Amino acid sequence: MEAIAVELAIEAVKFLVGRFIQQLDEQKLLIDEAAVRLEELERDNKFLTEYLEDAIKKPKSNNLIDRTLLREVRDSVYKAEDAIDSFAFKVADRESKWYSGIKKSAKPVVEIAQLIKSVAESVNKIRQKVEERDKDTAHATDNEGLPEYEGEPPIQEYGPIFAEEEKRLRQRLIGEAKQPDVIFITGTHGIGKTTLAAKMFHDSKMRKQDFNKHIWVSVHNPTPKNILLVVLRRLNKLPDDVPIPKILWELCDQVASCLTGEKFLLVIDNVPEMSKDDFKRLRSAFGQSDKRSKILITSNNDDLAAFVADDSHIKLNPLELGESWSLLQWRVFSGGPCPPGLERPGKLIAANCNGLPQKIDFAGDALAEKDRHSKEPGRRKKEWDDFSEGIIPFTPSSYNKMPYHLRACFLYLGIFPRKSKFSVSKLAHMWIAEGFIPRKDSVTLEETAEEYLKELVKRNLVSIEEKRLDGSAKTCSINELIYNFCKKESAADGENFLQEFRNSGPEGFYPPIDEVKKNRRICIHAHISKFIEKLISSRHQTLKIGLRSFVSHSDTEVTLHGKNISIIRAAFKLLRVLDAKPIKVNKIHSDLCLLVHLRYVTLSLNGDVLPEAISKLRNMQTLTVHTTSCTLKIEADILKMVELRHFQTNASATLPKKSKASEEDERLQTLCGISPKSCYPRILQ
C-alpha cells in the first residue's frame, strides 16, 4: 500500500548514505553493508508489495490466500519502511550536529545501520517464505493452468423478498425437460442472484430427493474451458498427478463421461459474458446426463437469457419501497415490529438503498449494531436520524472491488472528524505527502490526486459539498456508514492503517496511549491537551513510535513548551503529515526542524517569526502557519526549499530581502499571505 512512499524514501536514503559513508570512515564497513541492505530492502519491498496487490485481487475464499501470511508480509513492509526512514533521520541528525561543530559518537547511526541489517534479513526471510508458499501451491492448486475459483457459498438467511421468483425457480428446478435444462438468474449487482442460487443449492429437500450431485462453480474468468476444469475439480476427477486436458473437446468428453446418467444441479455463478457458440459448447458437455439435471447460471447481463426460453429466465428487479422497508425491519428487528419513532428515518434509509437487498442488509447490520449500544429511545432515534441524512448506499464489496491504488486514499478519509466537511485541496496535499499519489510525466501530483478523488465520487463513496467558480470540488464529505467502514477496516486487526484515539473518561483514552506505537497514523479530535500530557508522560514508550500522520481537529487548544518538544520530536521522528492546528508553540524550536520526513505541516504559532531553521525540512511540500500576530517575519528562504509546493499563513508575511526562487527545481504553486512589501519582481517571476 505504501510502495510509492518506500521508493521515494529509498532514493533520498541512497543519497544520504553515500554522503554519510565519506564522513564516517571508522564505521565504513558497517555502513557499506547497510547500503547494500537498503538495495535488498528495495527489491524485497517491491516483491512483497506486489504480492499484497495480487493477493487482494484474488477471491477472499480462495484457499491460496493465507491471511496470516499477508499480515506478516504487511508488517515486514512496515518494518522495512521504518528502518529506512530511521536511518535517514539519524543521518540528518548527525549532519546538523557536525555543522554546528558538535563531534559526537557515531553510535546512534551505527545502531540504525545494524537495525537495517536485521530488518533486511527478516524481510528477506518473509520473501523466501512467500516464494516457498507459491512453489508448494503451484502444483497442488494451479496444476499448470487450473483457474482461480471460489468455494461453495455459505447458507444465508434470505429474508422476506422475491417469493414469487423463488417459487418459479423451484418449479423449473424440479420440472422435467428433454435434456439437462439451463436456467438464468439475472439482475444488477447486489440484487441477490447468488443468494437465491445458494438457497436452492443448499435446500435440504433438493439435496435428498431431487439431485444426487451438487456442483458449485465460481471462477475468476468463466470461459467454457475454465468452467469445465472447475467442474472436474469439484467431482474429484482432476488428480494433481494427471495432466490437465489442453483442448476444449477433450474436457467436454471427460466431463460427459463423469456425469453420464447422473442427476445433478450445477450452479455457475457470476458469468458476465458468454457467446452463443460458447454456450452451445458448454451445454454439449452435459448432453448425456439425466434429463432432469439442471444448470443454473447467474449473471448481471440480461442479454445472456436470450439463449433460453422465457420460462427459464428469472429476472430479479430492484425492490419496491415497501419491500425494502420490510427487509430492513426484518434485518434489524429479526422480524419484530419497528418502534414508531424509528419508522420515518428507517424508511429514508430503505429508500436510499435503491432497492438492492445487499445494501439493505449491510445498512440493517449497521443499525442493529448501533441499537445494541443505544438503548435510550431519544439517543436511538437521533442515531437513526443521523444515519438517514444523506446516506449513500455502501457495502464492503465496494471496497473489495476497488483498484489497489485507491484503497489507501479511501481509508485516509477516516482521519477527519465524523460528519465533517474537508477541503479537497487539503486532502490532496495530505495524500501527496503520504506518498499515495505517483509521479507521472506531464501531469502534476495535484492533478493526479484530483483524478483519484473523482474516481471515489463516481463510486458514490465521497459527496461533493461545495464547488469553486470553475466547477471543481471545493469541499467534500463522507456519510456515517462509509466513515464507520473506514475506521473498522483501518484498525489494528484490519489493515493497521489508521486509529482514532478517544477520551474514555478520567482514566485515559481508548485505545490506551501506550498503543500509539502500534499505529501508522492516528487522529485525536477531542481532549488534545490531555492526550499530549499523557503522551509526554509516557516518554519511555515514544522512542518506538513509527507514526506517519498525526491529525487533530480538536476544538480545544494546548501549548507545547520547549522542554517537551524534544520528547515529541523523538516520538514523531518518522512523521510525514502533522495537521495539528490546536497544538500551539511559542516559537519554532530547532528540534522540530529536524523532523526531516515532514512533508505536510499545519501549525499554530504564538509568535511572529518563522526561523531560518525551518529550511532544514528539505522534504516539506505544504506549510501552513497560523499565528496570533498580525505579521510574520519569514527568516527562512522558503523559495529555495525545492520540494515546497504550497505556503500559506493568516498573517501579513515578509520574505528575506535576498529571497530568490531556486533555479534547481522550483515546484512552488501557492504563496498565500505574503505582504505587498515582499512582492518583488524577481518573486513575481
What does this structure look like?
The structure is a single chain. Helix content is 45%, strand content 14%. By secondary structure, it is an alpha/beta fold. The protein folds into five domains: 3-142, no CATH class; 163-315, 3-Layer(aba) Sandwich (Rossmann fold), CATH 3.40.50.300; 321-388; 397-482, Arc Repressor Mutant, subunit A (Orthogonal Bundle), CATH 1.10.10; 495-684, Leucine-rich repeat, LRR (right-handed beta-alpha superhelix), CATH 3.80.10. The strands form four sheets. Strands 9, 12, 13, 14, 15, 16, 17, 18, 19, 20 and 21 form an eleven-stranded parallel β-sheet that branches. The chain has a five-stranded parallel β-sheet with strand order 2-3-4-1-5, with helices on both faces. It starts with a helix and ends with a helix. 39% of the residues are buried. Mean pLDDT is 78; it is low at 1-31, 59-65, 98-106 and 138-144.
Outline the secondary-structure elements:
Blueprint: H1 3-23, H2 28-57, H3 67-99, H4 107-142, H5 163-174, E1 181-186, H6 193-202, H7 204-210, E2 213-217, H8 224-234, H9 248-259, E3 264-268, H10 276-284, E4 294-299, E5 313-315, H11 321-333, H12 343-352, H13 357-373, H14 377-388, H15 396-400, H16 404-411, E6 422-423, H17 424-434, H18 445-458, E7 463-467, E8 473-477, H19 480-490, E9 499-500, E10 502-503, E11 509-510, E12 521-523, H20 528-537, H21 539-542, E13 549-552, E14 558-560, H22 562-571, E15 577-585, E16 600-605, E17 609-610, E18 622-627, E19 631-634, E20 646-654, E21 670-674, H23 681-684
Parallel strand pairs: 1-4, 1-5, 2-3, 3-4, 9-12, 12-13, 13-15, 14-15, 15-16, 16-18, 17-19, 18-20, 19-20, 20-21
Antiparallel strand pairs: 6-8, 7-8, 10-11
Helix pairs in contact: 1-2, 1-3, 2-3, 2-4, 3-4, 8-9, 8-10, 11-12, 11-13, 12-14, 17-18
